[in-house]
Amino acid sequence: MRIITGSARGCRLKTPKGQTTRPTSDRIKESLFNILGQKVVGRRVLDLFAGTGNLGLEALSRGAASACFVDQATAALIKENAVHTRLADRVEVHGGDVFAELAHLANGGRSFDLIFCDPPYHKGLSQRALAFMEESQVLAHDGILVVEHGADENDMPELSRLCCVLNRRYGHTTQLSFFQWKAYLEEDDL
Q: How far apart, in whole angstroms, are the C-alpha atoms of residue 130 and residue 128?
């Protein structure tokens, strides 16, 4: 696993020893960032269930302003990868439970322009994260939320304020769903 392009292009990321992880493949990551294009530049990024930090570090390499990573099991590894990619000066890492950290960020008035949510598949975590986002202001008014979930995970919660603006399926394993605030999309239509 490596950073595809930008200031840290070609840097290989360390992966956890002895743990089973499912990092986003380079093919899916490249497709994701092609979809986002220049919408990454200057953005405040939140990478939930961050694993190695793969998505947030790629965003920083492509010009994001800062990235906050949340993963209870791999916080130390994310810090190592941030140092290795020479992006550590724009990185903040939280090593607690994702939902407790999300609540802490929300209660502190923090919001992010681009949120990556890549939880383990088939555990109801992407649905829980979407429900949290719907009720909080962690996603900025003009922000984009990207949820990576299993290709057969289509039981997303009913959302009244967030809207799925794009969904892409990758083989038999993965899909990416892109969400934005309905209010922002309605403003954009005016």
A: 5
